[in-house]
Amino acid sequence: MSQTVDYEVTLRYSYALGEVAGRFMQGLREGRILATRCSKSGLTYLPPRAYCERSFERCDGWVEAGSEGVIEASTIVVRGFEGKRKPPVAIAFVRLDGIDSAIANYVDGLDLSDYEAAMKRLAPGKRVRVVFAAEREGRITDFSFVCLE
Amino acid sequence: MKPETVAVLGSYQSNFKTHVDEKTYVEQAQIAAAGALRDAGMTPEDIDALVFAQAPTHFMGVADADRWALDHVFGAGKPVFRIHTGGATGGSAVQAAYSLVRSKLFRSVMVVGAERMAETPDAQEVLNLIFDAFYERDMPLSTNTTVGLWTTCYLQRFGLTQEDLARIAVRARRNAMSNPHAHLKGEITVADVMASKVIAYPLKLFDICPRSSGSAAMIVGSMAMAKRFATRPAFINGSASVTDTYWIGDRLTPSAKLRFVDLGPAAPAARACYARAGISDPAKQIQVAEIYDAYTVMYPVQLEQMGFCAEGEALRLDKDGFWDMDGAVAVNPSGGTLCTNPIAVTGLVRAIDAANQVMGKAAAMQVSRVRNAVSTAVGGIAQFFNCTVFGAEPA
Amino acid sequence: MSAYVLGIAIAPPSVSHDGLRLEELVYRTSRGALAAAGVSQRQLDHVTLGACDELDGRPISSMLMAAPAGGYMTDEIKVTDSGASALCLGYARVLSGEFHLGLVASWCKCSKTNVEEVMRFRGDPFFTRPLGLGAVEADGLFAQAVQEELQISEAEVGRRVADAYRRAARNPRGMRYAEKTLFDVNGSPYDATPVRSGQRAPLSDGAVAMVIASGAFVERNRGCEPLARITGVGWASDSYQLDRARLRSLQSARTAWRSALRMAGLQDASALDVVELEAQTGYHEAAYVRAFAITDEDRISPSGGAFAQNPLFCTGLVNAAEAVLQVSGKAGEVQRAAVKCAAAHSCHGYAQQGNVVALFESAGAAR
Description:
The complex is a heterotrimer.
Chain A: H1 18-29, E1 34-37, E2 44-45, E3 61-64, E4 68-77, E5 89-96, E6 103-108, H2 115-121, E7 127-132, E8 143-147
Parallel strand pairs in A: 6-8
Antiparallel strand pairs in A: 1-2, 1-3, 4-5, 4-7, 5-6, 7-8
Chain B: E1 7-13, H1 25-40, E2 49-53, H2 65-69, E3 80-83, H3 89-102, E4 108-115, H4 123-128, H5 143-158, H6 162-176, H7 190-195, E5 198-200, E6 203-204, E7 214-221, H8 223-229, E8 234-243, H9 248-252, H10 266-277, H11 282-285, E9 288-290, H12 298-305, H13 314-319, E10 330-331, H14 336-339, H15 346-359, E11 372-379, E12 384-391
Parallel strand pairs in B: 2-3, 2-4, 9-10, 9-11
Antiparallel strand pairs in B: 1-7, 1-8, 4-7, 5-6, 8-12, 11-12
Helix pairs in contact in B: 3-15
Chain C: E1 3-10, H1 22-37, E2 46-50, H2 53-56, H3 62-65, E3 75-79, H4 83-95, E4 101-109, H5 115-121, H6 135-149, H7 154-168, H8 182-186, E5 190-192, E6 195-196, E7 205-214, H9 215-220, E8 228-237, H10 244-249, H11 251-264, E9 274-276, H12 282-291, H13 315-327, E10 341-348, E11 354-362, H14 363-366
Parallel strand pairs in C: 2-3, 2-4, 9-10
Antiparallel strand pairs in C: 1-7, 1-8, 4-7, 5-6, 8-11, 10-11
């Protein structure tokens, strides 16, 4: 076995939330999902952003997303890693009603012992509902999705 | 003022494996630089400038490692910069070198890089960090899981199966048996692929590239340098890249401009590249494609989006041997990225494999009568895409 | 084949841009450059970024930064050496004839992370990192070498820093730090001998963007008014080793300078009306002035250079923007008279392993 020199490096960062993410997180605490809108392109964005990539102008409005939406893409994570929920877990990108783009989150309430069956319930095109956690901390995990069918 | 013609003068790639524990990063980079110089019959004095290919340094654990490697690649005192576009880095670095020669700023440029994926056990954590800190890091989003989503969509849309994709992995490993540099190689079956461990449904272990370590270098130069140093150069006749939005959710919905499932930026980048290279019918004019297929789904999607066949058809044509070594277009005779993925230089290896086919240097992998070959590289989560066409004659 | 600068934007600097997310800071700056140039993002055919993952706080930082910087649906690429390095590659892309309208953008939020930790992380694990060598220590070694080689006294260093603060105080685009006396500067404690803390330029948060165009684009769009023509660039990197020979030779700086001058068809510094140097300490300014043979002190860094603002990774590109403002007569309170040619210098890496020089000429002079 070859010789090694071992290091552990800690790099600390403090990321400014900025104008938009701060409002979104506050919205989550209030039990609402807020998207930004660009009047020039007409597009609404989740996750919200400060400017519209199509028009390259500032987003100038906020829109509250519907409480239901459609799955655009999904997967069951079997080999995950430490620090997140224990696998297997299901995640999906969902286009909530009234919004143009999709946002990702966990899908709860599924029996994940049979992947094929679970993936049928998670197939693109299936509808889901937003469920908020009882205790919220202004983090993306304040809500998750559950299948409607 | 007519721009300069750019030719590939020589190259080198190491034999890739999980961990290069008998050498340091800088020694790996040196081996590649020296190897490329030897291949081209050049000395360090013949190199005017360098472009270093290095993606996240978090895998090998030294920030700006290219600066550390500078002396080792005979670059001290010379114009150097480093390119970093994630997984697309190697291809972008070739593009940058091409611009430096085409602009006539330099007569010769060496592109060089090395990778050590196994220097840290925390690679997954590193890859989770590329996602947005506020909206996405709390989920187990990774390259594996997002491509899992992609694969679900692709298979559903065209009524294809996991077995159809598994055949891609089988062929890749079989082709790689003729490639002394490839990391993974051997005879496997569709059943083997289907039985391999599920990572992010429907992706299984064998649908996914390995994490490889190794190094590579390519020297490009002007026509005058080609006449001096190369008997049969490959000419870079076109190179283009397109960057998409980061947000996957924007790329999945009906309002998407470029669609995630279509590897969005691939089609516009290929169009721009082909226009520059005078390619109007890729399947007829391009004999070899060395594409960046870190996952099985990327193989058919790229072939379709780059105009080699209609959407949804690549896996059906695959059954008829269309993409075999002696098929209509030889795709990844090297085994591709499914067999070898040393992130910092993967795109460079794709380019080297394509150029070698044109130069007649592909040894056991050589396809006959290659007039044009194309290489690709993909970075981010299908966000950065570049492609380069190499030709036996200048365009 | 020519290349022009059509517009620039320098973000208002800050010790700490807490209220803005990095993407938002960069978006505003890129948007500002496009507005100044009178072109839209959609017209861009290429974008060249300069940024550092470790300073940005994420691996593959350009995934999140490319679009805010203006790169969406363009041929976008990123260099990691410095903002000025990005300008060099952008310039080459225009000269190659395949690109006609581009954006060069760079940024750095120094307040967001421990910069010295990042610098130490650049040390090789075997010989350098165990010594905890970061930028502070490397600058000490550099200062010692040039002090001896070029006969630079501490009095000169202190005077240069005090003068830089005086010039910087008048720069409307800078931090407007209070001026410092020679005593303030040379009476401060050592950071790493012989460099004292007061002799170092303080770090700040910032971003800068520039719209560049080919001569063909300018011809086709007679309504746009270029600010400057880019006449030459040069860049080079020294050995990674910090031995005395490398430190005192300033080899890469001299090479970059000579290359740029040669490309522009200029003989020496006397042809330049303004030179914006990147001097992280007063020792650096003293060394570069000699290496570049600048004899007229009045031409040095009218903006105040790093003592006006110092967003480390892109300080050199800020210098380039200031040089463009000088040749176009738009530098405001720090404008020098009758500026036709200006140089911008940038340095990066341990003890400034790498150097970049870009030369600009008034657009009026060319057309």
